[in-house]
Amino acid sequence: MSVPSVLIHRDADVLAKAVAARLITGLADAQSAKGSAHLVLTGGGMGIAALREVAATPARDAVEWPRLDIWWGDERFLPTGDPERNETGAREALLDRVDLDPARVHPMLGPDSGISAEESAERYADELRKAARHEDHGPVPSFDVLMLGLGPDGHVASLFPEMPAVYDERPVVAVHGAPKPPPTRISMTHSTIRAAREVWVIVAGEDKAGAVRLALQESGPIQVPGAGARGRLRTLFLLDRAAASKIPPGLTRRASP
Ligand SMILES: O=C1O[C@H](COP(=O)(O)O)[C@@H](O)[C@H](O)[C@H]1O
After folding, report:
1. Which ipTM score applies to this complex?
2. Which tens digits make up the pLDDT trace of 15-58?
């Protein structure tokens, strides 16, 4: 597991633009090295803002969209098209605006599929298993980039502090009774998050500053799920100044004035 690096941008707007630029470069590099790439999306304010910035820049054409697999780190267990679904936000911000191969877009199924949250999680784990190659050495692909938001309580994806999902070793699980609505969700677990080559934790706002500090320190991932979000090769905490305001000096690097 990698030790996190911290980059700080002036505000949420600059942060979203910087993440978009980094994402385009990262995906283009991965595709040129391997022919295709795997990207894991997050819901939440900054994750969707970054996708909107990707859609807005002509540099998006550097990515070969038909050769990209899109996954989600978590989903709110709501019907397809519900505005609160992470999938809906991502489609509106970017996915409906680029030339993706629909077979390579992998949403987590909702209740409109006539299945339970548990079945949805199991199906997603199966889909990940089928996409994993021999060289991935595990039940999920080695995602090139896995993006995460961070809640003020330290949650990432739908892994909330001290809830059963943070103890679970299956790749994907159903979550019931989440403290943030909606209560029923599907989430990748820590083991799946840690299979990614790069994990990017993207956070803006003063209300998250305490969670950022705890997620960067040696907190336990049970109490602070963000502290367990680490990539195999690289972990980046991409922050705005407000979110970085409680990090001890020396740990941070300012990336834009
Ligand atoms: O509910 C969720 O919240 C987190 C954080 O969202 P934010 O708006 O506070 O940044 C998000 O990462 C997760 O995907 C989502 O389901």
Report:
1. 0.96
2. 999 999 999 999 999 999 999 999 999 999 999 999 999 999 99
Residue of minimum CA distance from atom 2 in ligand 1: 44
Strands 37-41 and 68-72 come out as: parallel
10 close to 18: Cβ distance less than 8 angstroms: no
- 0.95 surpassed by pTM: yes
Alpha-carbon distance 13 to 92, whole Å?
18
- For residue 76, the ligand 1 atom closest to its alpha carbon is 16
Residue found by looking up tokens 């489609």 in the block: 91
